[in-house]
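seq as requested:
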Amino acid sequence: MRQFIFFALLAGAFGFFGWTCYRLVRFVLLGRPENRLDRIPERLWSVVVYYFGQKKVAEEKGAKGSSHHLWIFWGFLVITIGTVEMLVQGLAPSFSLAFIGQAGYAWLKGTIEAFNLIVLVMVLWAFFRRIVLKPRNIPMSLDAGVILGLIAGLMITHFLFHGLRFVAGEEAPGWAFLSSRVAGWFAGTSPSAAHVVSEASWWTHVVILLAFMNYLPFSKHIHIIFALPNIFFRNLGAKGVMPKLDLEDETQWGVAKAEQFTWKALLDGYACTECARCTNYCPANTTGKPLDPMRLIHDVHHDLRERGSLLLDLAGGKNGDRQKQLDALPALTGGRPHTDDESLWACTTCGACEQVCPVFIEHPMKILQMRTFLTLNEPQRVPTELQRTFTNLERNGNPWGIGKDKRMDWAEGQGVPTIDEKPAPEVLLWVGCAGAFDDRVKKQTIAMVKILKIAKVDYAVLGNKERCTGDPARRSGNELLYQQLAQENVATLNAHNVKTVLTSCPHCFHTLKNEYPQLGGNYEVIHHTQFLARLLADKKISPLNSVVRNLTYHDSCYLGRWNGEYDAPRAVLAAIPTPGGLVELGRKREKSFCCGAGGARMWMEEKTGERVNRNRVKEALETGVEAIATACPFCTIMLRDGVADEGAAERVKVMDVAELVAASLADVLVAPAPITEPPEQEGLPSEEFGTKPEPRPERGWQP
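struct tokens:
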């Protein structure tokens, strides 16, 4: 009778669990198709490293870390062995894993016992952490309490079951150090009574286990089921690449409903562990904006749950009032608490959220696709500053709104050849809009040109034929404008048979390298720090002079996180004689903090909370360095503004890596005169390389 009841319970529990998971998978498959079945060996290795090895969780240290989750996870992997044995014994009481040998079996049972204790301690710590320590964005919720309580119940019933079996004489206690202690507590209990209590503990353990399994799909711990496939299907290609939008398909321009995402984007919602790392690292959220990446993913997840049932009913022929119910549901864009307009426009697309996610959720792409819906379908919801930026891009081919015939004004007197004057150069220098139009960044461009001349690099520029790559338009949702600009640039580059493009702007670098191939633009694209590192390695340039006493380096999001380049800028800076060396910031490399300009935020004002650039600048000023090195014109602009806002412009300079190199090479330049250290600030470069603050138009649209 016991076996029959157990079989019925087991069959019912697994049957319901299977049906629930099947329905959830059907929800996910409502999304648009996407191929994530390439490079299978690499995907399998990802599962080993990031799921079973929990690499990203283990990397997180300090207050933002949650190492206790590692022990709970690994503990469950070990405990599952004993759970399988227990479930099989429910159907076949004589079954035992003892066939592996008595010594091995004793070691296995002892290991399981140890991990049961570790998991119980970690669960108690998790309760304490949520209730007493209260880490940011990780509250003590009912759902968390239920999950932690069920896990604790499993551990406690394990000890009771085995301890009382020892008292009943049904097991030898040699391997179980803690269950043996429990047996001591019940030493005076008769064997028959111990058997009854042990049996009750066994049933309680089984019921908790099966209840826990079926509660998972309806709780925050659904990630236990879907984290593994989400890691397996993670993006293995270039990061942060927006898919080309088919503008001929007028049925979907952007995303406003859950099912308009790809199936992988929907799977992200099930995989979220609610660790809040994405939100804690988000520069917008950190500085008081309403954007909450974790809860935005939850909004997508909840939208899918609400719409999924109705869509499946419609697909199954159950019409009724399903369509009316669907139409009555709020749109995802603006109809959910964390996908409101202010949240969507607050994103800098820095990728910090995606970088720290232990299960590879792709937050920025969802935000960008929802922005695309707003821009192309409901343009009245686009910030006014962006609408003006679009006008500037349409009319003049640059977001500054300066006449396109002025694009080469920066090069006056510099002897810079255009591609018409020097066809088929080895390298095309992509100047970029900031490099051509921003008074401060022009100096960075000139510095790079001087280095190219010293190194005798065969280069040319497009001149007035160059247009904005379209990055600001695409990241703000104007895919139509992006494609127009990009197609014009691709046609120009292809007409001149360009093979290699050198750019100082990581945004141009990312777009040209990773997104122009969608439109037939296939080039070798090199960031200027990579090119400088190459020149140094080939000994074509040799920095000699000390420029500053010490400096720090700010990692650009689009060069670093999105394109994985952290070493080249540091290698270049290391080659420049600097007495105090490079002082690394606390938030660096993969964990770098955004300057605030990405995602077209360069052209929008921050009206809520602290400015992102000031948050970053405060960290840099705390190092006490003389200069902040950058490798991105947008970062230069934002950090320079932040330094000025903090009243430190006379004390700390913001300089591009190319400027520092050019200043260090000053003794071999023909013009201008060699750089000398101003007496009032020993060790700082001259005004020629941009150390003197100068008035600059405000960010955003310029009339």
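Residues 102-133 form the longest helix (32 residues).
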